[in-house]
Amino acid sequence: MTLTDRVLNRTLLRRQHLLRRSGLSVPQMCDHLVGLQAQDVTPPFIGLFGRIADFDPAAVSQGLTARSLVRITLMRATIHLVTPPDALRIAPHVQPELEKIPFRRGFNGGAMVGLDPEEVRARGERALGAEPTPAAELRIRAAAAYPDRDPGPVVQTWLYQLPVLQTPPRGRWRDNSRPTWSRVESWLGEPLRPGYPLAELVLRYLYAFGPASTMDIQTWSKLVGIKEAVLQLGDRVRTYTDERGRTLYDPADAELADPDLPAPVRFLGWYDNVYLSHRDRRRIVPDGAAPPLRHMAAQVAPILVDGFLAGIYKVVTDRDRARLRISPLRAWTPAERDEVEAEGSALLAFLEPERERSTEILPAGADLRG
Fold first, then answer.
1. Residues 8, 283: contact at Cβ < 8 Å?
2. Which residue, of 156, 251, 304, 366, has the greatest Cβ tally within 10 A?
3. Tens digit of pLDDT for each residue in 201-215?
């Protein structure tokens, strides 16, 4: 059976809870989505605002403080907001790939080349210890351990070599504090769980992002052994093809969405996984182009109109004002424009309730920084 891009689009949006806001709790949503991309502090709050009805951002802050949610480096070597069980069972899959990064010549201009990885790891274990350690303190300890090296890459190496997570206050609502790091096992009081099958992780990806190809799964996870994991699933998955003839896998009991379902306007956070987790992005990006990461680094983020990328936005603030600046990527109908303004105003009120607010729709290609 061949699936059109529109069927894939509506199926993806439904599984991502972007067609209708859900009644799931924050931990339940994180579990279903296998985490929310949280490289910066604000995006997971935007992602949850668009997915959960009556979302209260305090739920994230309370979860991080109570250790029912954690911020940890997982898929694609980026920070994700996940539940503790996922931190403990996904980290063993990711850790071997993370540990390869620091001693490559491309890592910080070869800053760690020539050092013994095991000796660096041992010093990192002593530097981190059993208690949460601020990033600034880690730099001091790195400088003492390696006075002839730049402490920044040394600290980053330790954070790749050792299973660690970010502890509060960073990550709480409106708290962009510098990171404080802790060993995963000491923070959660449990050992890592290395026995979690990769095939189960792949199946969960498909429930949240499928149908998808093995290259899509690899793009999301940056893990090896994806083809073998899919084969292990056997009759728990079924296959389709897309419009370009690629084989797509999906859980055998998962339903496809009606391509004619209406899709409301949704503002995504920069780096949202729904936008980054497929090799072939034509199910959500009309031309399939790779996401403009340089824009995301400047906190420019996507807008979905009729389910597909059709605009970008940025929130610009000063002491008293918050402006939502929007740039279309195609012509919008009057109804679409009204819906973009309404959803954007609701998001801005959520993000900046105490500032004077305004929403501006600019010409395509306009500078969103203002």
1. yes
2. 304
3. 999 999 999 999 999
Question: What gap in Å lies between CA 158 and CA 297, rounded to an integer?
Answer: 24
What are the residues facing 311 on neighbouring strands? Answer: 303, 328
Output the CA–CA distances (angstroms, integers) from residue 364 to 325, 348, 358, in the order listed.
11, 21, 19
Whole-number average pLDDT of the chain: 95
DSSP one-letter string for 145-190: H-TTS-HHHHHHHHHHHS-EEEETTTTSTT--PPPEEEEHHHHHTS
pLDDT of 244 above 90 = yes
- Phi, psi (5° rounding) for residue 141? -70, -35
CA 367 to chain centre: 25
Helices (DSSP H) in the chain: which residue ranges?
5-15, 26-33, 42-49, 58-66, 84-100, 117-128, 135-145, 151-161, 184-188, 198-209, 214-221, 226-233, 273-276, 293-297, 334-351
The DSSP letter of residue 207 is: H
**Phi/psi of residue 315, nearest 5 degrees:** -95, 125
Q: Would you call the peptide bond into 211 cis, given omega within 30 degrees of 0 as the criterion?
A: yes
For residue 169, cis peptide bond before it (omega within 30 degrees of 0):
yes
Check residue 69 and give its pLDDT: 98
pLDDT, residue 114, reads 85
What letter does residue 20 receive in the DSSP assignment?
Answer: S
Measured distance CA(349)–CA(356) in Å, rounded: 9
Q: Residue type at 215? A: M
Distance, in Å, from the CA atom of 22 to the CA atom of 317, rounded to the nearest integer, reads 30
Q: What is the mean pLDDT of residues 126-152?
A: 94
Largest pairwise CA distance in the chain: 63
Residue tagged 């920070």 (tokens):
79
Quick one: what percent of the chain has pLDDT higher than 90?
A: 89
Lowest-confidence range among 107-116, 189-198, 257-266? 107-116
Q: What is the C-alpha to C-alpha distance for residues 31 and 46, in angstroms, rounded to an integer?
A: 17
Distance CA 131, CA 134 (A): 10
